[in-house]
Design a protein that fits this description.
heterodimer, A: 91 residues, four-stranded antiparallel sheet, 3 helices, 4 strands, 34% helix, 25% strand, globular, B: alpha/beta, Glucose Oxidase, domain 1, Enzyme I, Chain A, domain 2, TIM Barrel, eight-stranded parallel β-barrel, seven-stranded mixed sheet
Amino acid sequence: MLEKEVTIKNETGLHARPATLFVKKASSFSADIEITKDDKTVNAKSIMGVMSLGAGKGSKVKLKAEGDDEQEAIEALVELIDQGLSEQEGG
Amino acid sequence: MRGVAASPGIAIGKSVLKMEEALLADEREISPDEVDGELERLREGLEKAVEELKELQEETEKKLGKEEAEIFGAHQMLVQDPEMVKTIEEGIKKDKKNAEKALEEAVEQYASLMAGLEDEYMQAREADIRDVGSRVLRILKGKSDEQADLPPDSVIIARDLTPSDTARLDKERVVAFVTADGSRTSHSAIMARSLGIPAVVGLGRDFLKDVDDGAKVIVDGNEGEVFLNPSEEKLKEYRERLEEFEQEKKRLAQFKDVKAVTRDGEEIEVAGNIGNIFDVEPLLEQGGEGIGLFRTEFLYMDREDLPGEEEQFEAYKEVAQAMGDYPVIIRTLDIGGDKDLPYLELPQEMNPFLGYRAIRLCLDQPEIFKPQLRAILRASHYGNIKLMYPMIATLEEVKEANRLLAEIEKELEEEGIPFDGEMEKGIMIEVPGAVMIADALAGEVDFFSIGTNDLIQYTMAVDRGNERIAHLHSPYHPGVLKLIKETIEAGHRNDIWVGMCGEAAGDELLLPFLLGAGLDEFSMSAGSVLRIKELLGFWTREEAKEITEKALELGTAEEVEKFLKNNKKTEK
């Protein structure tokens, strides 16, 4: 199991289109992935779960992955958030 | 029953309740051996829904473009949402419910969860979840997605029309829409206007309880009225009106391809107000000779982030090209007031109409303003585009906006990107203070366009959304008329032309006053264009001047209205 904390940097936060990108990326891995903000934990592959976190700009979230590709999953998702959840390639 | 008149026209037809309303899940307790079968049925239903949505996305992309189709991509994610699927499966496994009921309950649970969140964007997802839920429910019940079984003269009645509904609508059979939710700017209203079908929206949800499938309905999209099971008398009245309406349509059709001219032969520009490319075709059909107001807000609304320069450029270019040599006045972003963009996360204000909006916001946040200015300039190369700044109150605002524009022109030159260096720049006159300094403002721009809706609101200190004081929001108030007259005179003193793009420009009573005051361009909703062209032909400028002068001598809005009514012309 792998865990990593990361801060949301983009203006919109983890809402709407950025949330969609995040969930799409998370869904591309086989590992179980969870995302936690404050004391609320949701499935990172659930668009409704992720949007209902209400993680705006500046929020700290914790990512947790468990499964064969947990390493890649965490790296990819952290990179996506660090790049501001934009649709650029590599993100 | 009265709602919001969302799209003009009259229709008489039979009600068809949209499936979402008619389709309810049957509840059945299942035995333990049925669990696996129900789970399998659910899995197949969800897969089928994803397939349908993929197809719909492709179809819509071809018909309306990528942006419009994206909603069905989002729907695919909702259908496959692991949390919601898990909740449905648990309903089947633990609570021993059939797939339909388990689905309905899960949809209800997540839809209310979204509706209860603070964020407006998330609240709007409620409708998407319900749309997706209805789709899967329909599939589980073994029904197809075709509307082929719609009878002719159908009046579609629904809580709201979703993009899935309008994308598939059969225009041959549907004569009107009626919805419980929605406003003039909601998706269904905009679609109805683009399709040219009468619509009344915002009737309230109680209305749905009173409607039966197959009932006779009259929809009056001009007045925003709906009559269920009308009396013979009402039917007769409306059949006559429909007849009149059709005849008027025929009579007015002669003005479609001719220029608007006064009786003594002076050409006057009659243009239309649009919100997006879908409004262009109907406007041309109605004889519009230009676009006096392209509201760019729709590009920014109902989405999750700002549209980029490229996307805007394409949108403006498309409109400019569709209009050929006709002028297209693009108004820069007029957000704030009653039009919010949730993703900008602007703080709530006590007086939004007097607040941080339109040009104020744009000048304060050049990172929002500049991409739009760049996009407009780039598009100017492809047609007859003019640029207009909204809600100007001070000389500094115009100067600053023009300075930014000049900066961008320089950038484009350096990058070798073509644009129209002679593009006209204008401002909207909506603030009384701006009228008072109109001479100074005229020195900075090529035209004025009077925005009467806001001008009245600011002149009369009346919130135009407040029904209790709505009677004060009148274009006939002599104070408003004097400001209009002064604006036109100031423009002409400084050799610039003056147009009008508010509702008042399409006001039949006010027409001689505006003509007599010297207005050069009238821009209105497409539905009024032909009628105004006809009316202009009844007058000469000289005759109209008398009306203007006399109206300005009157003391109250009521007197003015009465005077204008008494001096209406019904022929040349």
